[in-house]
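Box 3.1. Reading complex inputs
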Amino acid sequence: MSSLAIQDAYLTYGNHRVLGPVTLDVRAGEHLILLGKSGCGKSTLLNHLYTENRQDCALIPQDLGLVENLSVYHNVYMGRLQRYSALRNCLNFIYPAVARIAEVTPLLEQLGLDEKCFSAVAELSGGQQQRVAVARALYQAAPVLLADEPVSALDGPEADRVMALLGQYFATAVISLHDVDRALRYGQRIIAIQNGELVLDESAHRLTVSSLNEFY
Amino acid sequence: MSFTEAMLSSLSRWSGGVKTSIGFVLVAICCLFVADLEISSIDPWAEMWRLADGLFHPSLMQSSLVLEALLSTLAFAFAGVALAVVGGFLLALMFHNAFVRGFCALVRSIHELFWALIFLQFFGLHPLTGLLAIAIPYSGIFARMYAEMLAQVPMLPARTLPSGTGYLNTLLYTRLPLAWPHLVSYTSYRLECGIRSSAILGFVGLPTLGYYLESSFSQGYYSEVAALLMLFYLLIATKKIWLRRWTLPALFLGSPFFLGDGMPIVWGNAWRFISEDIIPAPLRNSEAGGQWESLSKLSQWTSDIMFNQALPGIWNTLVLSQIALVVTGLCALIMFPLISRYCYSLPGRMPGYVLLVIARSTPEYLLAYILLQLLGPSMLPAVIALAIHNGALIGYLSGRHSNELVLRSDLPKRRLDRYFYELLPRIYPSFLSFMLYRWEVIMRETAILGILGIHTLGFFVDSAIQEIRFDVALVLILTAALLNIAVDMFSRRIQRYI
């Protein structure tokens, strides 16, 4: 069964054609990694997938999309806004519900943010903010994850921990990375983008770091 | 090369901003020839001397009355602005609708004193009159600004929300918090304007500061005027101290109790106002004549208003406001270096700050009232009043902008060189856009100053009300509103051209 599919699409960024024609189909249960130089169209591809399949996807954009003057808790809670009535959300906005805090806290613990639960996002470091965006996606618990460089601001061990969490929470995922080594460790299928085309589409276990380095 | 050729060739070199400015200056110079700018009072210096003497010897005769005036000034401002925040926010959410946009443009183009004059006929001297006179135009202003601020927030946070999140949730969790700092600072600025508006409402009889100022002034108690003014400045200058997040609930909840009781509303009058008084006179008694007769009477009535009141009013409003606009600009350009860190050291800037704060805290209407008493009725006091208040405001904004500039460290030694070669060219674009934004405000104020006896639109509105011809007054108020909307549209077009 195919989870997300693109059929012969031309993708644009502003008025600028970036990719195409692209044909891609992401099967349910697979973790797909996008590789390529910055500006090659990874973000455009992810954005397109998100726009077309918003129902099933959680998104971690490169710019995170956090509301910086709200607390970490509120930003994470936003992953489930659609599950509650506007009134319930309104009350939670003013006075966070104990049951919701109990749901959010374990996620924050796993990401090392539990002490920051009620700090404003603006007060956090770049790496901490990135983990807040990750927590929001985990909390949303959508079937598919679309993540654009979700560990770019984290150091090695921390990045691995976050990648492992994402793999564990999401059955299906499309993640763009710039670290070839990490791509091979966490991806089952690797796609490389070059000059506006998908130039490589291969299972991770058939690839090596050196064979991938040519795309950088 | 002849002189004209030289002029023409340099014309093509000038930027849009400079050309626009020259256009405005030329129009203002033409206006000078038709404007009445004479000093008609017999001995302005003697009166001015007495006023200055009073200003240096402030004294309060009845301090309890003054306290009451200050409290009710604050109360009308807070209650009115609070209502406007709620109304404006709801309207801002519907601002994509063309009808709502038009409605907001109309209500904010009518000055709060005109609203007060309308509601005085309707409610009488009841607190509702003052409350609505502030709340209604401010709602229109808030609606536009809030809508702009909510539209300018980054889109990404809303995009990352799960699908099916819904409009209200998206608003509450992303757009509102993202726009919050801008909304708060704008509302706080408007609250200061609300205090000024509230003070001015006293001039039409509400129990705010303007009422006491007018009565002290007309009796020549200048030391009392001075004391009242100083208290008013103190109130505005200390805003940051008493206006805190934790004082807000008390201020808003307390304000309705200090509005005063006023006179009871006579609902019969209110009903007569909307069912009879504001219906054009020829239509009111139309049972007798035929349809054609009443139609010809109506056109007679309309052309009477047009030629005897509206057109002269519009002409004088335009002439006065164009002169005032250019003088305001000159004032601002002269005053902004006073608070610029590239012109004076910190202690040297202090007098400038004090001067600008006092000048921009003084409502134009109040200044014009005082200057009219001193100089006699002509356009001159109005021009000076408008230029002092608005010039100080724009000077303050431009000065603050110049302080944000980062300039090279080997700046020219002489202050004048620095002004012309470094500061002026850099701040000029933003100065011009402040001015264009202010143009409409100056026009609205100019119309209102007519109430003081200068023959702008407000004069004809006020006379019509005194003759109990509310139908005529309403037509003239709408004329002033349309004039403001036209100027607003024109200034935005110029802004795009620059």
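In summary: Chain A has a mean pLDDT of 89.
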